[in-house]
Amino acid sequence: MEDAPRVTPLPTESELARAAASGDRAAFGRLVDLTKRPVYGLCVRLLGDAEEARDAAQESFVRAWSALSSYDTSQPFVPWLLRIARNHCIDLTRRRLPAARRVELDADPGDEPRTELPDAAAPRADEQLERAQLARTLDEAVQRLPDRYREVVHLFHVEQMSYKDIAASMEVPIGTVMTWLYRARAQLRQDLQQREGA
């Protein structure tokens, strides 16, 4: 009987981070692949604009590569990286022009909507509309939260990070994360109830 071929396990995030910290670009590239979704998601949540968030996420990775010498390899990599992304987004929001002075340059007034044949298996339009309205109402309520509450809601519910990792990312105690999450949920519940009653 022949021995089964040995499967080489993939390097862990901490192994990749240690390799990247010692200058291994391929390891850092792998870390980028593993973490680009949470970094981009956090940037979108903090900036509220997909295009700006893409640029911010890229810049966050550039800053992380430049700061790898300061990374403590005994600590988890993702909270450290998200802290860099968060700080960059905060800097961007401080420098933003007021919305009234912003001009959209890439809108094409000549674009016409395309018509497509209906899909019999697709959900009904009224159901889709109701779901979209609910999602929009919830997203608007989240956007009205204070920045720290909005960020903790995103990291916990969307990125599914632990309290410990959120605390490390935001540089606050775990108890503070739990308090902010509790208060954010209470504020969302109150906001949504008020809108239903209106």
Describe it.
This protein has two domains: 10-98, Rna Polymerase Sigma Factor, Chain: A, CATH 1.10.1740; 124-198, Winged helix-like DNA-binding domain superfamily/Winged helix DNA-binding domain (Arc Repressor Mutant, subunit A). The longest helix is centred in the last third of the chain and has 24 residues, at 174-197. The protein starts with 12 loop residues before the first helix and ends with a helix. With 198 residues, the chain is mainly alpha-helical. Residues 102-107 and 112-118 have low confidence and may be disordered. The protein is 66% helix and 0% strand. The protein is built from eight helices and no strands.
- The average pLDDT is 79
Instruction: Describe the sheet with the most strands.
Output: none
Strand content: under 5%
| Computed Rg | 21 Å
Tell me the count of domains: 2
Low-confidence stretches: 102-107, 112-118
Number of strands: 0
Question: Which descriptor suits the 3D outline?
Answer: elongated
Decide which structural class fits the backbone.
mainly alpha
- The name CATH uses for the topology of the largest domain is Rna Polymerase Sigma Factor, Chain: A
In sequence order, what are the helices and strands, one letter per element?
A: HHHHHHHH
Number of helices: 8
CATH superfamily of the largest domain: RNA polymerase sigma factor, region 2, helix turn helix motif
- CATH C-level name of the largest domain: Mainly Alpha
Distance between the termini: 74 Å
Percent in helix: 55-70%
CATH architecture descriptor name of the largest domain: Orthogonal Bundle
